[in-house]
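User: structure tokens for Putative MFS transporter, AGZA family, xanthine/uracil permease, please.
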Amino acid sequence: MDGGTYNYRLFARNDFSAFWALFTDNLINLIVLAGVCQFVFNMPAEIVFGRILPGAAVAIMAGVGAYTVLAKRAAQRHGRDVTALPYGISTPVMFVYLFGVIGPIYWSTNDATLAWQVGIGAGFMGGIVAGLGAIVGPWLKRVTPRAGMLGTLCGIALVFIGTVPLATVFEDPFVGFASMIIILWGLVGRFRLPFNIPAGLLALIVGTVVALGMGKASISFEGVGFYPPVPYFGDLIAGIQYLFANPELFLVLVPVQIYNFIETMNNVESAEAAGDHYPVATCQVTDGVGTMIGAIFGSPFPTTAYIGHPAYKRMGAHTGYIIAVGLVIPFAAFFGLLAFLNNLIPVAAAAPVLVFVALSLITNTAHSVKTEHMAAVTIAMMPHVSSFLVTKWGSLMGALGATGVEGLPRLGDEALTAALLQQGAHFEGHLALSQGAILTGLIWGAIVASVIDGRFRNAGGFALAACGMSLVGIIHSASLHWPSLSGVSMGYLIAAAFLFVYPYFHKEDALVNDNLPTDEPQPTPGE
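Assistant: Done. Predicted tokens:
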């Protein structure tokens, strides 16, 4: 339907509730990155609050503007209301930039300013890589089963967006439970609250009040001031020059930006599964350009279309919720209010909102894929569990070192790996699965879904692509490298050969899946 005359209202009543959920999501990211930069990398407040946060705010404003236009066009094209794609700092990529780019520079030079310069240089170059994803994005979307794309997002949602915040709730149960029960009542159960107060807002208020009463939150105006956004071309050029002088940093940069544009593609598919259709290539370019704009104004951190569109769709949001975030976050960043909120709002009060986003994404996926494809969704989630385990094992080793334990072997040491295996902890396998987890999950989800549907050539193509990526270290490796055969790459090659060749030597009637629903057309054997 061409709904060019359709009157789409940007703002709806439900945008108010959705705003608090998306605002909390962005707020947590900004608070975390500010804390790590200031207290781990010893960056002065002038850089953290005066450059990084205003730069991130400018990037968010740019992306919100683009996604507002896309939502309005989609509503007019289809002649119905749509929910705009949520947008903000990419959470997984943020941590990679913190500890894979900025951290190593700071630890090797003890120069916080240089670390920031290299960070914005990496952000700018990464934005170019992310934008180039638009070249292959539409084709990837056509050949990748929905179960693969959504399944790998469900893995991220289950582990990092759901489980980690839920653990935060249980670490501070008085605050966390007070917020959690309100989120469950108002957002998950969708029951009304007094005076129709948005559940996200009430959860933050109640959690903060409880924390203030227990002395776990404070009212502090330290860091409040005026921090206007300013372009930093000189610092950006210095950072890019350092990157080209030390090209090994690109081994971190390129794979993670490939992850970023794949994440955008998956999130667009998630929105489509919820009923809203957006052009994947345009979204990938938007995320890349937004990241580049943020880098010019001082933020190293990539932006992306967020996971969680189905949650905001379920809440009945239009576009007003992202517009409000695109106004409030910059206002808070430009006037240093993020530092004030960092002291005021406890993490346990905000964490239940993220748990809700995880629940909504997984639930929506279960409703938007064929029942038979839930096996594909499940296997796509598994690499993220391995990623979580490896991350926490590393945290454990770091904690042991910080407490003064001497003579610790490094994680990956041969003797330690053997000892872990004896205790049932399969470190090598989990490490391989964790490296490039989003791509690994997508690939295995696509293979399983394609096999279920009898699309053997499609499954073989994904196995062959995985072989090529593992040869050069995009997946199952800590960094890019020259092509090198490994057991994993040979395993993918064998799987691809089987999927391409075996169907030709098998009876055609044995290649039809009798378990597919009768109302769906059977695929052509070997497709």
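User: Anything notable?

Assistant: Residues 255 and 474 are 6 Å apart (CA to CA).
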